Amino acid sequence: MKWHHVQENWSAFFEAILDKWPDADEDELEEIDGDQRAFIAYIAELNGMETADAREEIRDWLSGELPSDVVMDPRHDDHSIRLSGKFMSEGEDELDDDAKYGDD
Predict the structure, then answer these.
(1) Backbone angles phi, psi at 66, to 5 degrees
(2) Domains of the chain
(3) DSSP states of 33-97
(4) Mean pLDDT of 70-90
(5) For residue 98, what are the contacts with CB-CB under 8 A and spacing of at least 6?
(6) pLDDT at position 43, please?
């Protein structure tokens, strides 16, 4: 994912940020408001590390998948649906209604 996804949907990433950095404070995240430099400085201070190390840790975090519920973009949704096909049982179509399979 790219930083602009995070910045544009900042509060939607709080859960993912708190999963990665459990000591982060939601009020502090509110104040950062998607500012990348402020976030890097915050993570560095939070974990007692150098800014460069925090930047690298955030870069690694950004290399993960964009959570599907963060951005409502049909192009992204279609991509996510197609990727989900590799985890589906034989005979199940990724475009079918989940209720048919009892996993809605």
Answers:
(1) -70, 125
(2) 3-88 (1.10.1470)
(3) TT-HHHHHHHHHHHHT--HHHHHHHHHHHHTSPPPTTT---HHHHHHHHHHHGGGSPTT--TTS-
(4) 63
(5) 104
(6) 97
